[in-house]
Specification:
By secondary structure, the protein is mainly alpha-helical. It has 19 helices and eleven strands. Residues 1-32 are annotated as: Disordered.
Length: 510
């Protein structure tokens, strides 16, 4: 191993602010840094002596200065990659193609990563060419160099533990990378489902709290028939539970993997016993029961499950965004809008209008939904663009879905804690609108007919009197019967039977 002291590799910044790796540059005033030289088929490069990553990572840092988001920004992906490498080491030892000492240090290094160590070494950007090869190479280097330390050797002394010959034994990027991103998606999806369920429960609690508050329902933004505010919030909870079920159903499909397929699905360079062994070990270390795909050729090129997850996530995001639209409408005003509910005031809403408070939490959730919709379009295009035995665009699929899962999780959390839990009802305004609403006339149609009810509605719209008062004043029904027919329980459908009450029919004059 050749070691030198010289200018430290550093990140310079492009015109648009994207970091670019330049091994020969250093910041002004930076002291010389010890380097090691690493070699590959393209030549040699200086690598910081204390870096766990190596030459393949360094080349990728130069080649892909695209995003500012490193792999370390997706800790579940880093952990999933470590799970795969750990399972591979155990399988290789079990079938006798890797000696126990090497397998043991690979196992230990991976466990450290799983426990949260060395994540800062995953500096490579998530978006890259090569179908994820750079990511696989990078994790091989990080694991190998930590393994070398455990063996008492210096980083870069790969003759004792090699990133490809040992850490990547029996593997290819083309089975490691899709397996890891599927597992990472399962880990992230589990967290999302927890937050999603908590938000659904928050809506359900509000449904119970508002169960007896009558309000005017609306269709096409026009007044319809009465309902309770509790029914409205209970509907939010119900639609979220439906999406929770749909998202949960995706997990078993994500657990179908192609480890053992190696390059294109033929299993070249892997022992025939490897696929089953690594499947079993990955199930054990991850805690999720994995299943080897029945057709590894198909599984290596197919991106269908990613479209399924992305589409299901988009559905949940769109429906949550619709709920946020409703919250913004219901709280609009507060004086010149609906003003039915009050959202917790989170921050000043204007630099020019004192006292203005905006519905900023629902608004940010709306924007998350818009982003997820766009990400789903990206996933769809990338899945379609796959060719022959491999889809080269899995990195953009992975980063799109991982970002969507993370943002949706955060959106559910902030909507629950910073908005829904603190919503209150404007009871007086709701009651006033119900009293003045002509929509209650619908409940009278079984007794006086549709045509007569329509006339009453038009009369009420041009009169200061309510429907209740007009019906009683015209002698169409007694005050007692009106109260029975227009009771909150019957208007909202809360009673078991909401059909007609037997009343004497009173003719209505034309």
């Amino acid at each position: 191993m050749v070691r030198t002291t010289g200018p430290a590799p550093s990140f310079t910044t492009s015109d648009d602010g994207v970091p670019i790796y330049r091994p020969g540059l250093r910041e002004a005033g930076e002291s010389p840094r010890e380097m090691r030289m690493e070699h590959d088929s393209l030549g040699s490069m200086p690598i910081p002596a204390d870096a766990y990553w190596g030459i393949h990572t360094a080349r990728a840092l130069e080649n892909f200065p695209i995003t500012r988001r490193a792999l370390s920004n997706h800790p579940n992906l880093v952990i999933a990659l470590a799970f795969v490498k750990q399972a591979a080491a155990r399988a290789n030892a079990e079938i006798g193609v890797l000696n126990a000492e090497k397998a043991g240090v690979i196992d230990r290094a991976c466990q450290e990563i799983i426990e949260g160590h060395l994540h800062d070494q995953f500096v490579l950007g998530v978006l890259q060419g090569g179908a994820g090869t750079s990511t696989n190479m990078s994790v091989n280097e990080i694991v190998a160099n930590r393994g070398l330390e455990l063996l008492g050797h210096a980083k870069g002394e790969y003759e004792h533990l090699h990133p490809i010959d040992d850490v990547n034994r029996s593997q290819s990027t083309n089975d490691v990378y899709p397996t890891a991103i599927k597992l990472a998606m399962v880990l992230s999806l589990r967290t999302l489902l927890e937050e999603h369920e908590l938000l659904s429960e928050s809506f359900a609690r509000k449904g119970r709290e508002f169960a007896h508050i009558l309000k005017v329902g609306r269709t096409q933004l026009q007044d319809a028939v009465p309902m309770t505010l509790g029914q409205e919030f209970r509907g939010f909870a119900t639609t979220m539970r439906e999406d929770h079920d749909r998202l949960s159903e995706v997990i078993p499909w994500l657990n179908e993997i192609n480890l053992g397929a190696t390059a294109i699905g033929t299993g070249i360079t892997a022992d025939p016993r490897y696929a089953e062994s690594v499947r079993r070990h990955l199930s054990e270390v991850s805690g999720y029961e994995m299943e080897t795909a029945p057709d590894l050729i198909e599984a290596t090129s197919d991106a269908g499950i990613f479209m399924t997850l992305s589409g299901t996530l988009k559905r949940a995001a769109v429906k949550l965004s619709k709920i946020c639209n409703d919250l913004r409408l219901l709280s609009s005003g507060p004086q010149a809008g609906f003003g039915e509910i009050n959202l917790p005031p989170r921050q000043a809403g204007s630099s020019i209008m004192p006292g203005k408070v905006n519905p900023v939490i629902p608004e940010v959730v709306n924007q998350v939904a818009f982003s997820i919709i766009g990400a789903d379009a990206t996933v769809t295009a990338a899945a379609e663009a796959g060719q022959l035995q491999l889809n080269a665009f899995e990195p953009v699929i992975a980063t799109s879905i991982m970002q969507s899962l993370a943002w949706m999780t955060n959106a559910c959390r902030t909507l629950r804690l910073n908005c829904v839990d603190g919503i209150t009802a404007n009871v007086e305004r709701l009651s006033e609108m119900v009293d003045l609403s002509v929509g209650v006339v619908t409940a009278l149609t079984p007794y006086i007919g549709y045509q007569a009810s329509a006339k009453l509605a038009y009369e009420a719209l041009n009169s200061p009197l309510s429907i209740r008062q007009i019906v009683v004043e015209r002698g169409l029904m007694s005050a007692e019967d009106v109260e029975r027919v227009l009771s909150p329980e019957r208007l909202s459908g809360a009673v078991p039977m909401t059909g007609a009450i037997a009343l004497p029919m009173v003719p209505v004059e034309d």
